[in-house]
Amino acid sequence: MPIQIGPITLKSRVYVPPMAGVTDLVFRDIVRQVDPNCLLSTEMVSSRALMNRPECRIMDLSDTEHPIGIQLFGHEPDVMAVAAQMAEKKGADFVDINMGCPVPKITKGKDGCALMKEPDLAREIVTAVKAAIKIPVTVKFRLGWDDSSRNAVEFGALIEEAGASAVTVHGRTRQQLYSGKADWSFIKKVKDALSIPVFGNGDVFEPEDAIRLLEITGCDGVAVARGTLGNPWLIPRITKYIEEGILDPAPCDVERLVLAYLHCVWLTRYKGARVGANESRRHLTHYTKGIVGSAPFRARLTQIANAEEAAVILAELSEMVAGSEGRREFLLHVENDNQKNGVKPGEGTGQAEKGFKSPVDLVALTPVAVPHHSVDKQVHAPAHYADHERCY
Ligand SMILES: Cc1cc2nc3c(=O)[nH]c(=O)nc-3n(C[C@H](O)[C@H](O)[C@H](O)COP(=O)(O)O)c2cc1C
Known about the structure:
Layout: E1 4-5, E2 8-9, E3 14-16, H1 25-34, E4 39-46, H2 47-52, E5 68-73, H3 77-89, E6 94-99, H4 104-107, H5 119-132, E7 137-141, H6 152-161, E8 166-170, H7 184-193, E9 198-201, H8 207-217, E10 221-223, H9 234-244, H10 253-271, H11 273-288, H12 295-301, H13 307-341
Parallel strand pairs: 3-4, 3-10, 4-5, 5-6, 6-7, 7-8, 8-9, 9-10
Antiparallel strand pairs: 1-2
Helix pairs in contact: 3-5, 5-6, 6-7, 8-9, 10-11, 10-13, 11-12
The protein binds flavin mononucleotide (FMN).
Flavin mononucleotide is lined by residues 17-22, 43-44, 71, 98, 100-101, 140, 170, 201-204, 224-227.
């Protein structure tokens, strides 16, 4: 049975949930191009900040991203309702409400997971948001605030009663942050208590983990966050494993290094050389993790000032992992990208490009091809990110 979120019928059981500082337009475009059907979400967006900066570009979506939700956080029902209307206008397929963020900066203001301690307020928020928009409302939460107050089952029931169309449950408490292991058996209790679709979440890093989570929890779908860092291919691999029982191999090291470079270039083109290069560092670290002998290269990648520097280091790393053939293959893709865009890597004004189209074209990556899920058209993304300001 396909998952139904309100009127939306999903073609996939896999969800890439919100990650602040990660699931921006570039990241989502990359995921979308390797997996055409998974559910996507923006980074979390502050409803309060939106009131002051309604043009905040963090909610910009591209045409090819659907189905996609915009995640909001906040604790004022009326403000959340207005923010939800803005998200609806932006073209979101659903609005997700963050009731799981454990970060003190967020919970101190009664936002995020703090709402699990205030179920009446949480209900009020869902009711207000639901009444304000036509698209479905979903909620993401944890098992509870701490071990002595694991109220996810009652909380989920209340959220459903208030009108949510689906929930995502991360199998940890707020107190745990990211420590310990996600408790999938507790997620099962939530699933068993609700009639709306439930996405189980926490600690899925391999396709086999996803299957086990689905088996243990009985959840309708699986939400995969950290596992996708530097590894967007995990999503199509999970999808294929769930749907066809076929376990595709992980991409080879050079393939990862090529996408690491392209991710860096695309971020610099969207957000400008300085911001793009800074934000690329964390992605480069993830793409190179697990490659034997990569630690010294990774240390250098955390210092890059532009995409050209990344290219030099990644070319060396390609040579280390696959000899001169690896280096040649890597440089071929750099050259291919340069020719398409008419610039040298990292070259530019420091401004995000105007009229910029998302450059993601994984077909052009052959022979370093993405297995089975190549997409044959360019996606069109919002014009420029020079004044990109985060609303969180
Ligand atoms: C860098 C980072 C940023 C995150 N930002 C958000 C966020 O904005 N909203 C949210 O609901 N969860 C956020 N999360 C939590 C993830 O969506 C997810 O629930 C959590 O990482 C557990 O799933 P995983 O084990 O698959 O990573 C974030 C997680 C990470 C690692």
